[in-house]
Every structure is written in C-alpha cells, then in structure tokens.
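Researcher: For the annotation table, I need structure tokens for Exocyst complex component 3-like protein. Please keep the output clean. Sequence:
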Amino acid sequence: MSAEDEHAASPRDEEWPEAEKAEKLARGAALKWASGVFYRPEKLEGLGQYRSRETQRNSSIQSRLKSTVQSYLEGVSAGLEQLQLAAQEVQSVCQDLGAARWALLDSADGFQGLQQMRALKAEHVQLASVVQVLPQLFSVHEVFSHTLQLLRGQQLLEAHAELMMMEHLRDDILSQLHLRGLSSAQATVLSYFSGLQEINESLAKQLWDIVGSSLRLVREDPVLFVTAVRIIEREEKIDDTLLLEATFLPPGRPKGWRQKFYHVLQDTITGAHFHHARIDTNGPLLARHLAALQKDIVSELRVVKDLMVQCVPDHYNILSLCTATYHQALTSHLQEILREDLDKQALFLLLEWALRVYHSPDMMGHPDLLPEVDVSALGALMSPELVDQTERKYVVKVKASVLEWMQRTLDVEFKEWFRDEEPETDHQGFFQSALPVIVMQMLNENIQVASLITDSLQQKVYNMALEELEAFLGRLREALVQCGKEHQNDRTIPKYYVSYLLAMLNNNLALSSSVSSLHPDAARREVPASLRAALDRTQKKACQLLLEELLLDLQPLCLQLPSRKWLCGSQLISSMCEVIDKYAKNFSRVRKPLYTLLLMESELLVTSQYLRALMQKKMVCKSEEERGQLCDRLLQDATQLRELFCGLGVDQSQQSLEAVFALRELICLKDPALLSLEVLGFATKYPDISDEHISTLLDLRGDVSREVRHMVLEMMAQHPQVLPESYRPIFSTILVPAPELPFCLRKGKCA
C-alpha cells in the first residue's frame, strides 16, 4: 500500500476502530481455516471449488446488506418530511396566537364594564335575600314569646320546631357574614337573637327533668319521655350535619345533648340510691340497706328492659348503659362502706352480697333479666385485691371474737375447778367437761360460715383457728401451772384437784382427736406439727401435775427409807401400795391410752423415788447379816410393787422396777472382788447411771475397800455407755448428795 493510501485510510481507521478490529479478526480466522484445510498438497486440488463457493456466499451477504440499508434510508427520508410539515404547522399556530393576544388587548376596556355588572348582580342577590327574610326578622321576638308559652305548656315538639327555625335563621345570617368577612356585624346579630339562649336553657331544663324521671314516666306516661328523646335526636342530627360541613360552626354547637342524656340518666340512678347520708354500718341496718338495694335495682332494670328499651333508638343501648351504671355505682359504694371500721357481721354481709347474692338468681341473674342483662363482661364487683383485703379484715375480727370466747370458756372452766363437786362424766364414766365441745364447735362454726363465701376465706379462717387453738393451749397450760401453785399452798383447794386434772387430760385427748375434722378438705386432714406439739405439751403438763400430786403423798413414806425399822420389817411399802392403788383408781377415769401412760409414769416415779431414798446415805450396812437383811427387804419391796403394777395392767417387761432387782444383786454379791464385773453389767443395762451413783451404792454395802472402789470406777471409765433412743432414764433424774467435807481447824491443814 502506498503512502497516499495509508494517509487516506488513517481517518477512516480513526473514525471506525471497531471495523478495523473486525477485519483483522476475520483475516485471522480465514488464515487459520485455510491452514487447516490445505495443510497437505493433495488438498490444493479443491481450491477452485472452495473459491467459487465462497464467492457465491459473499455475493448473497452483500445483497442482503444492500436491501437492509435501502429500507433504513427510506424510513429516514419519510421522517425528515414529517418533521418539516410539523415545523410549518407550529409556525402557523404561533401566528394565530399572536393575533388572538392583540385582539384581547383591544377588548380589555369592555371587560371592566362586565366586572361592574357582576358586582351589581351580587348586590342585587343579597338585597333580594334580605327582602325575603325581613318578615321573619321582624317576627323574631314574637316567635320567642310564643315558643316560651309552648314550653310552659309542655308542648315540647312544637316549641322545638320554632326553636330550630329561629336557630336556622340566625345561623344562616351568621354564615353569610362569616363568608364575607363581616365579623364585626356578628355581635349585632347575636344580640338580636339573644332570646334563643333563654329558650335553649328552658327547653334543656325540661328535657333533663324528664330524663331524670324517666323510670317513672315510662311506666306512667311514656309519651313525654319519647318526645324528649325525639328532640335530642333532632339536635344530634343538626350537630352531625354542621360538623361534617366544617365551614362555619354557629355558637352553642355542638350541643351534645345525647351525651348529656346519658350523664343525666346515670346521675339520676346513682343519686337515687348511692348519694344518701352516711350509712349505718351496724350489721342489721347494713343488711336492710343491701336488701333494699337488691330489690330496687332488680325492679328498675326490669322497667328498663321491658319498657324503656322500646322508647329509645337501638343504638342507645340503654339496658347496657343502665346495667353498667348500677355496677360501677355499686363498686364505688361498697368501697366507700369498706373504708369504715366494720364489725365481722358487716364484713361477712358485704362479702356474701358482692360474691354470692349479686350474681345469684335473686339479683343480676334474675330470670326476668336474662339473657339481656349480663354483668360478666363488666368485671368483678370487688377486685381480687379488695376481696383479699376484706377477707383479712374479717379474719382479724373473727380472731378477736374467738379469742374473747375462748378466754371466757377458760375462765369458766377453771372456776368450776373450785366447786365442791367432781367434774361431770360421760356415759363410760370418764371425767370430762364442756371445754373441748365449746372450743371445737366455736372454731368449726366459723370455718363453716366462711365456706359460704369463698374457699380462700375458709382457708384463712381455718389457719386462724389452728393458731388460736395453739395459743389457747398455751394459756391453758399457764392456767394449769397457776392452779397447781395454789394447790401446793393449800392442798384442800381445789377439793377435786386430781379429778379435774384427769378431766383436762380427757379434754386434751378429745381436742387432739377432733382437731383434724376442722380441715375443709377431708382428704388432707393433717394436724400441723406445731399444734400437735402444743397438744403434747398440754398433756405432759397435766401428767406432770398429777405425778407431782402422787409424789407429795409418797414423799412422807419415802423419807422413812432406808432405816433400821424398815430393814427389820414394816408396813411402809404396803402404805405406798395403798397410795398408788388409790391414784390408780382415779387414773381409771381417763381413757385407756392416758390411763396406761399414767400408770407407766407412776411406776417410773415410784422406782426413781425408791432408788433416790436408798442413795441418800442414811444407812450403811455394818455386817454381812445387815446386807442379807437389805437384800431380803429389797426383794420383798420390789416384788410387792411389781405385783401391784402388774395387777394394774403394766406389763412386767415395761416396768423399771427391774432396776431394784438388779441393785439387789449388786448388794447381795458376797465377793467384793467381783464387783467390777457386776457393776459393768449393771451399767450396761442402765447406761444413765453415773460414777456418783455407783460410789453411793458401794457405800451402802459397807464392805468395799478403796482399791476395789477405784478398780470399779476405773472400769466404768474405760467402758463409757451410750443411751439408746428408746431408753427410759431412771438414774439421771436422781441427785446424789454431795460428799461431806472433812472438819477443818482454823488456820490448820485438813486431815
């Protein structure tokens, strides 16, 4: 290619770089294809065929390209022609608009004359309107007077029609002034129509008086009430229309007389029943007040349901409104009453009335009110918190009453102790008194009464009853102790002290067996541990006083033990048996478990007193003969006492007198050298015995040397004993007298 050709091709290459790139790619592809096809010499023979075929193919492609370019050129030519026509039409329109503008400018003076005609026309329309209402304006005050006369004659519909006409006239004038911005003239119009205010107030007063007497009117003359409702509905429609237009709101609008109707009706209901002077909260008077409320509310709701509903539109929901009003007023009324300091009867009445009577068929669930009256959606008359608070107040009042009655019962009970008569007996001859019956009946009645209200109140009263019973048992024990002290000062007072203690044991047993019946749930009748412990303490205290009484009668006899006279033979144990037998006959007046307990405790007391007497260091055996006499006496005494208690019903295996027999074996042992083994066996059988007890018993023998004593005590120290759980202590209750100190001279050494 020449330099001129390269120079000529360069602008095209710069203008169409994509074409040059495409051409290079085509040449590269053709070269690759040719090298692939003609890579062997024998393939060159078909070169002419390939050339002719490619020539035909190129001719076909060029013809298609030419036809496509030709169609595009024809479309561009048609578009240029249309653009030229559009430009000519736009130029023509611009010329026409310019001519119209000059024509309008030439006729501007004529339009000013039309503006004056328009103003004159508007003024003419206004004057025509004024001329039309002039007769009505001149008769305004006359209409006012006539409307007031109609109101005085209770022609309410006619009076209201004239009132609406006058208000419409006034409002129309005010609206026109408002639209024209003549607000300064509105005051004059309002002054001219000032009589409307008096008519409005007079009509409203009569309407609210009618609404306030609606419950009576719907029974006697419903026409007047229906008239009032119709007037109220007219005013509501006017209010709605003016509020929808929202261009101009006349003075006094919206009147809202329907809402006022609701308020007046509600105030009438609450004022008639709940705005009295202070109510006497005394039980009977409060009961009469609640009964009157119940009767009046049911009666008035029946009137509303059967009569008033027919006199008002359905959307008033008058029955629901009245029901809700009564419900809310009662809620506030009960809260107001509960602020007073009420007694238990008043609190019970309020709880019963609010939780039971109110929803019962006698009141809101009355057949004549169902199913239209439904207070379930209005919530509880007393909130759960208020119910709980009231129940707690009631429990406090009941607790004070129970405490007073229990104390009075206790006082009466102990006054009877000082009578010259034995306590009463039941059909089996067991001593008893009315105390458990009175106490349980009082507690059970309060629990049963509480069950008429709610389960929660019943549970609260039940818990209170158990607490008060436990406290009562504490006061009972204190009274027993006080009575015991008085009896120790003078054993003739009370005369039948033992009998009344036995009656108290039977009473305590009766309380223990019947306290579980207080529980509201028969399947969960468990006595709390604290109350059972209080019952046990009361039983132990009565048993203790009885045993102290037995001890007082045994002590003069025990003081004579041991002695030479007793050793040689006496009726001392026979006298003790007589005392024990006398008490056993008294013990037979209590029920069997207590009788057995008293006998076993008496046997333990006799044994411990007998052993205590032997350990008082009153006697020391001086010879083997005296030890033999002591062994014989111990055997006779223990055998006589054992036979006595076996005859009374105490099994020999349960008797503690076996300790006397074991002690006898210790005394009867002839060889002191064997004492260590005998004492060890004795201590194993009676592990509560101490070194002091053993030392005292060895002293009683009178033949134990210091070495043997030391060996015995050392063996005991080497074999400490542990008390079994079921062991009944014998020696731990016996105090050994302290050893006597040797006589000392002043400023000298002890011998």
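Researcher: And a one-line annotation?
Model: The longest helix spans residues 47-106.
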